[in-house]
Design goal:
Main location (chain C): membrane
Largest interface: A-B, 49 and 51 residues
Mean pLDDT of chain A: 90
Oligomer: heterotrimer
Distance between the termini of chain C: 68 Å
Shape of chain A: globular
Keywords (chain C): Membrane, Transmembrane, Transmembrane helix
Strand order of the largest sheet of chain C: 1-2
Order of helices and strands of chain C: HHEEHHHHHHHHHHHHHHHHHHHHH
Largest sheet of chain A: 3 strands, antiparallel
Chains: A mainly alpha, B mainly alpha, C mainly alpha
Membrane topology (chain C): Multi-pass membrane protein
Number of helices of chain C: 23
Strand content of chain C: under 5%
Order of helices and strands of chain A: EHHEEEHHHHHHHHHHHHEEHHHHEHH
Structural class of chain A: mainly alpha
Shape of chain C: globular
GO cellular component, one term (chain C): endomembrane system
Structural class of chain C: mainly alpha
Protein name (chain C): NADH-quinone oxidoreductase subunit L
Mean pLDDT of chain C: 80
Chain lengths: ~525, ~100, ~650
């Protein structure tokens, strides 16, 4: 990206590629491409197991290479003339975010692959068949499409790339690389296909709308700094020669694109509808992994380009954008919590809770470097709990499929105490009750935000979590104290894969609550973003 | 002609696209408005590339075009499938998920 | 005296295994479910046995160290580390924990073995062993924790295991009620313990023993704070150990299976209160008033236990009240302070042996008599269950303090130490302890004679009572040997062993000589035995005896303890609750409900903004973007 225009010769030198640094991304994208080939060449009956194995093995291999990369912060490309190419930057927080996405991705893939809980799985066999038509009834017996595996792998790969992208163009590509598969995945539900298609369309139109803002912001910033590398933008701000209007409008547009993905108010509007309409395993993937990617991207952009971590003591743009982001964070925490109070559908309730949690995470973003570790901790704690919660949601079923309306959940504890205990634990973790990961995470983020001087934000955050505790506890009361409805849904026995997902989620929820220090040490060890 | 005019034109296109998303009902047209916004961004990139004297902006606009093409593929697929089910491409008809 | 603990070395750095083994046992048994039914009891017993062997190894290593270095701490992990708040999870193995570890795992192992036989016909045997292992793990955590928070975790853990086991036969309403009662009484005590922990945090910023003790020793705290910490700890101890005024749950807890009564409600868990006070000795030694309260509670409880014990006809309840009373002796001892700390601990150890033996003996009797518990329905059993009879006899002789059995070596010194307290207190507490010894002799003789001797008064369905299988009688024999020998062997060696913990104390002038005290005690004991023998050698009427005196009537009603609690604790509590509810409904709820309604109303209205139309969503995004751009520009240029 530093090629200069010269009169007659283009002097192009190729960068040296650090393949170890790229390995996690190459493996995941490679597995996705191989998955496409499998779709093309394997007979239909063999695709499912091949795709499942390929996906899980690919993700585990990626995790291994991520661990192998730990310890050395560097860009993945190096020019022989020593100039900087920051397209992909491997650093502590980036590796941690990638690791979190891959680890949660494995769980999400297991949920996506589950076919024991309902016949054929959560996905439709032929998405092109019109919903509620004769052909649609006929295809109900067919097992679900296996295209979902490569789509998921592309999404996960895109999210990983998003967290380690060091320039805005790579970031844009990554954004699209994980958004486009997600749009499709949202529309592939086996049951209630009209809702699913509607969710996909809403997500797609609004997502494309938001990414238009993102790329326009990139264009403006390019105009301001003459480069789209985060470090160059930071340096340009330090030199402060060019038009501030370009810089600030560019920053604002860029932020809109990022905040859309993170589901911050007022860019959250798509979240409840899409979370409700999408197949539940895909909702789990979005709630856990997309959240990590979006917040990871926000963290990197604001820390590296618009904070002053690169040149401590130098001029910082933080004074300009902080008030705006604070207002957004407050609105997100409060509106998310308040809207959750009157929800009657469990997936919608979790969607609003996801919005409010985006607000708590924004508190960590605003506190910049001081709260980086705590924010990373929060992402992992929240991600695993929300995965387990959605996994449990897939198990409560009646003849129409998943029974997500809360009135149908009344008194379920009497019929399935084990399920009720697990879901109660998850709700308590969301509500931030001590000895669960939710408490440790909120405590970590809020206390580091206090240290960074964001007292008012923390006060609002605590108030919002008090409000938010109410809907969670309402679910608990409903489970245990209400009389069951007549044709109450049954809680299916989880198959191996859903069982694993629930178990892992619950174990993390409890472990991070009992011994948070273990993970806190890891996030502290991850250090700061590479910004020199 | 100073390059600033191109920037103003791009901003105007971007605004037209954004407003178009709000006022048009047909999903295909809404999507075309989004494409318009992307192209406004492209025009801005190319203009700045000219102003700054670097090639980066022009290269980036290629990337954006490719992404836009990919979006078309996905978007048309989604809009087609919903059109088959509902016999309607109006974004206002798809209104089951709310509150 | 500065308290300094040395870090663990060698084998001792593996001491976490002590807790991990039984915990793993419990986990495996609970997780595997029915699949483990066939071998679950063996696994459960094996983990405790292995823990005992480990305990022995650690004990030997510890005894190899020089006197002043006999302690080992092991940091496991940091629980919370945030600014000034620092809670780390660590273990401490010192002479005091060592004797408890050996008692818990040793007696625990024997009772596990016994339970294999006792529970052999029960469908829930695996579940029983899982809970039993859980209990052992929690109890070991309690005595091995190196700070009060860890101890509290174990404290709650044994509580949980105890409720689970009391209501083990949960389809019996009485068992479920008893579990609930135990839970409530313990809650009162636990609240006290928690407040004490908060006070420690506030005063010392930490709860680990070293910091707290050195802080107390440095004497820069107001004596009121030390007193408050001490009294709240004592409240916790009273709840767990069934001391006045929270003693009523313990006899009801006998609804659980007999091995539970033996292990949890006689030998180990109920002595946790004694451990708590002995462990906190620097706190209690620093405040005379706190010590006086401990001694008074001990003396009062030991008499209450004896008096009620005389009036009960249920074999396990008599033993339960006897436990209450014996723990009263221990409280008395640890309250006296100084050299008497060690006396309390050796009485605790001896009691662990003979009371476990007595309970298991009672279980063996019930096993042979179709689960009959009324001693008026026994009689003449000695011919039919020789092993049970003989081991029960040894336990009985040990508890009444006949020389040279263990009770003699451990109870007499406590009585003597009580007499030697200064001034009027010596006479009051010594007198109470002495009277208690006589009463103990009376009711234990009554129990023994009515059960094993005299005419048969069996119910009709029993033709030929049978002796229990060897797997149950062998533990009985081992415990009986312990009851006989423990006292003589332990009295001096354990006192010396515990010196590094409690420190040396100089002997001061004695009011009463050793021999006078022993003589007096023996005289009263013999008197008690003789009276009981004369009264009950011909058995007793099956019908309820008319209660001629107030004391009998009162004793049958557990000395009105339940009614006392009702009046003193429950009634004011209820009035207070009613008052609070009134205030709450009118004032607090008004505000809270108003807020909740406001939030709910706001929520319902805001929900409407989520119209479901893509275009209105796009409007929200676009206006958001415009506001952000405008605000940024205004902030900068405005």
């Amino acid at each position: 990206m530093t090629t200069m225009v010269s009169a007659d010769t283009l002097d192009i030198s190729f960068p040296e590629v650090d393949y170890l640094a790229l390995a996690p991304l190459l493996i995941v994208f490679g597995a996705a491409c191989v998955g496409i080939l499998l779709e093309a060449f394997l007979p239909r009956t063999r695709r499912y197991s091949a795709q499942l194995v390929l996906s899980v093995v690919g993700l585990v291999a990626a995790l291994v290479t991520i661990v192998m990369n730990v310890g050395e912060d560097r860009p993945a490309f190096a020019m022989s003339d020593g100039s900087r190419v920051d397209a992909i930057v491997i650093d502590g927080p980036g590796l941690f975010l990638m690791g979190a996405i891959v680890a949660m991705g494995v769980i999400a893939v297991l949920l996506i692959a589950e076919r024991r809980v309902s016949a054929g799985g959560a996905f439709v066999a032929h998405a092109a068949v019109a919903a509620d038509s004769k052909a649609d009834a006929a295809q109900a017996r067919h097992p679900g499409a296996t295209e979902v595996f490569p789509l998921t792998m592309f999404a996960i790969g895109g999210m990983m790339l998003f967290c380690v992208a060091g320039d805005l163009l790579t970031m844009f590509i990554a954004l699209e690389a994980f958004s486009l598969p997600l749009y499709l995945l949202c529309g592939l539900a086996r049951r209630r296909r009209l809702l699913s298609q509607e969710a996909a369309m809403k997500y797609f139109l609004l997502g494309a709308f938001a990414s238009a803002f993102f790329i326009y912001g990139v264009a403006l910033l390019y105009g301001y700094a003459g480069s789209v590398q985060l470090v160059d933008i930071n340096a340009a701000i330090a030199a402060s020669g060019n038009s501030q209007v370009l810089l600030l409008s560019g920053l604002a547009m860029l932020a809109v694109g990022l905040l859309f993905k993170a589901a911050a108010v007022p860019f959250h509007v798509w979240t409840p509808d899409v979370y409700t309409g999408a197949p539940t395993p895909v909702t789990a993937l979005m709630a856990a992994c997309t959240k990590v990617a979006a917040i990871g991207g926000l963290l990197r952009v604001f820390n590296v380009a618009f904070g002053n971590s690169g040149n401590p003591g130098g001029p910082s743009l933080a004074w300009d954008w902080r008030p705006i982001l604070i207002a957004i964070a407050i609105a997100t925490m409060v509106i998310g919590a308040i809207l959750a109070v009157t929800q009657t559908d469990i997936k919608r309730l979790l969607a609003y809770s996801s919005i409010a949690n985006a607000g708590y995470l924004l508190v960590g973003v605003i506190a910049l470097g001081q709260a980086l570790g705590a924010t990373l901790f929060y992402l992992v704690a929240y991600g695993f709990t929300v995965l387990a919660a959605f996994a449990v949601v897939t198990l409560v079923r009646d003849s129409q499929g998943e029974a997500t309306h809360l009135s149908r959940w009344a008194g379920l504890a009497k019929r399935s105490p084990r399920f009720a205990v697990i879901f109660t634990l998850l709700m308590l973790a969301f509500a931030g009750i001590p000895l669960t990961s939710g408490f440790a995470a909120k405590f970590a983020v809020f206390s580091s935000a206090l240290e960074a001087g964001q007292t008012s934000l923390v006060i609002v955050g605590v108030l919002s979590s008090v409000i938010l505790a109410f809907p969670y506890l309402k679910v608990v009361v409903l489970l245990w104290l209400s009389q069951p409805v007549e044709d109450a849904p049954a809680v299916s026995m989880p198959g191996f894969m859903t069982g694993t997902a629930v178990t892992v989620g619950v174990v993390f929820t409890v472990l991070l609550g009992l011994a948070p220090q273990v993970l806190l040490n890891i996030v502290d060890g991850a250090g700061q973003f590479l910004a020199k | 002609m100073t390059p600033t005019y191109y920037l103003v034109l791009a901003a105007a296109l971007f605004t037209i696209g954004a407003v178009g998303v709000l006022v048009r009902r047909n999903a295909i047209v809404v999507f075309m408005c989004v494409e318009l916004m992307l192209n406004a961004a492209n025009l801005t990139l190319v203009t700045f590339s000219r102003i700054n004297g670097t090639l980066d902006g022009q290269i980036m606009s290629f990337f954006v075009m490719v992404v836009a093409a990919a979006e078309v593929v996905i978007g048309l697929a989604i809009i087609m499938s919903i059109y088959r089910s509902r016999r309607s491409a109006s974004v206002d008809d798809a209104n089951l998920l709310k509150y | 005296m500065d308290t300094v603990f040395a870090p663990a070395t060698g084998a001792l750095s593996w001491m976490w295994l002590l807790i991990a083994l039984p915990l793993a046992g419990a986990t495996v048994l609970l997780l595997l479910g029915r699949r483990a039914d066939r071998w679950g009891h063996l696994l459960g017993t094996a983990t405790v046995g292995a823990a005992f062997v480990l305990g022995l190894v650690f004990f030997l290593q510890l005894s190899g160290l020089p006197d002043d270095a006999r302690s080992a701490t092991l940091d496991l992990f940091t629980f919370v580390e945030s600014g000034s708040l620092n809670i780390s999870a660590g273990l401490l193995f010192d002479p005091l924990s060592a004797v408890f570890v050996l008692l818990i795992t040793g007696v625990g192992f024997l009772i596990h073995v016994y339970a294999i036989g006792y529970m052999s016909h029960d469908e829930g045997r695996r579940r029983f062993f899982a809970f039993f292992n859980l209990f052992v793990a929690a109890m070991l955590l309690l005595v091995l924790g190196d700070n009060y928070v860890m101890m509290f975790v174990g404290w709650e853990g044994v509580g949980v295991a105890s409720y689970l086991l009391i209501s083990f036969w949960f389809n019996r309403p009485s068992a479920a009620t008893a579990g609930k009662k135990a839970f409530l009484a313990n809650r009162v005590g636990d609240a006290g313990f928690l407040i004490a922990i908060f006070l420690m945090f506030a005063s010392f910023g930490s709860t680990d023993f070293q910091t707290v003790f050195n802080g107390t020793a440095a004497n820069n705290l107001a004596s009121g704070t030390v007193l408050a910490i001490g009294l709240f700890l004592l409240l916790g101890a009273c709840g767990k150990s069934g001391q006045f005024p929270l003693q009523t749950w313990l006899p009801d807890a006998m609804e659980g299976p007999t091995p539970v009564s033996a292990l949890i409600h006689a030998a180990t868990m109920v002595t946790a209160g004694v451990y708590l006070i002995a462990r906190s000795h620097p706190i209690f030694s620093a405040n005379e008033t706190a010590q006086l309260v401990v001694v008074s509670i001990g003396a009062l409880t030991l008499l209450i236990g004896c008096v009620i014990g005389c009036a009960k006809d249920d074999i396990k309840r008599v033993l339960a009240y006897s436990t209450v009373s014996q723990i009263g002796y221990m409280f008395l001892a640890v309250g006296l302070g100084g050299a008497a700390y060690a006396l309390g601990i050796i009485h605790l150890l001896a009691h662990g042996f003979f009371k476990a033996g007595l309970f298991l003996g009672a279980g063996s009797v019930m096993h042979g008599m179709n689960d009959q518990v009324d001693i008026r329905r026994f009689g003449g059993l000695w011919k039919y269950m020789k092993s049970t009879w003989f081991t029960f006899l040894l336990g009985y002789l040990a508890i009444i303090g006949l020389p040279p059995l263990s009770g003699f070596f451990t109870k007499d010194p406590i009585i003597l130490a009580a007499f030697n307290r200064e001034g009027w207190q010596g006479w009051v507490f010594g007198g109470a302890a002495l009277l208690g010894a006589g009463l103990t002799a009376f009711y234990m003789t009554r129990l023994f004679i009515l059960t094993f001797h005299g005419p048969k008064r069996w119910t009709d369905d029993i033709e030929h009572p049978h002796e229990s299988p060897a797997i149950m009688t062998i533990p009985l024999w081992i415990l009986a040997v312990g009851s006989v020998a423990a006292g003589g062997l332990m009295s001096t060696s354990v006192v010396n062993w515990l010196t590094p913990v409690f420190g040396h104390t100089e002997h001061h002038e004695e009011k009463m000589s050793h021999w006078t005290a022993t003589g007096l005690t023996m005289a009263l004991v013999v008197l008690g035995v003789v009276i009981a023998f004369l009264l009950f050698r011909r058995g007793t009427a099956l019908a309820e005896q008319p209660a001629r005196t107030h004391i009998v009537r009162a004793a049958r009603q557990n000395l009105y303890a339940d009614r006392f609690n009702e009046l003193v604790l429950e009634l004011p509590g209820r009035l207070l609750t009613r008052a609070l509810v009134w205030v709450d409904n009118r004032g607090v709820d008004g505000v809270v409900n108003g807020l909740a309604a406001a939030v709910g109303g706001g929520s319902a209205r805001l929900r409407r903004s989520q119209t479901g139309f893509v275009r209105s969503y796009a409007l929200s995004i676009l206006s958001g973007a415009v506001v952000v751009v405008a605000a940024l520009l205004v902030v900068t240029f405005g």
